[in-house]
Design goal:
By secondary structure, the protein is an alpha+beta fold. It has one domain. It is about 50% helix and about 25% strand. It is built from 2 helices and 2 strands, in the order αββα. Helix 1 packs antiparallel against helix 2. The chain is rod-shaped, with a radius of gyration of 21 Å. It starts with a helix and ends with a helix. The model has no long low-confidence stretch (mean pLDDT about 90).
Length: about 70
């Protein structure tokens, strides 16, 4: 769970879904007009946290079930 949180924070902590690019505002040197430049990058979104939390719950549940089985045996 901590790894998922750190990955999400390191990637920019996007509240929405993951993105494969982001836009940067630039100014043309000659015409001095503003334009947006597209930069290719992988930015993890909120689903990274959801997947990490789901994996945490599954592993915790499996741990509890296996612990109870070993106590009953």
């Amino acid at each position: 769970m901590l790894l998922g949180l750190l990955t999400w924070i390191y990637g920019g902590a996007q509240i929405g879904f993951y993105k494969t690019y982001y836009s940067v505002q630039r100014v043309d040197e000659i015409t001095e007009l503003e334009y947006q430049e597209r930069v290719e990058a992988f930015l993890p979104g909120i689903e990274t946290l959801v997947i990490a939390f789901a994996a945490f719950v599954v592993l915790l549940s499996a741990s509890v079930i296996l612990e109870r089985r070993s106590e009953n045996a």
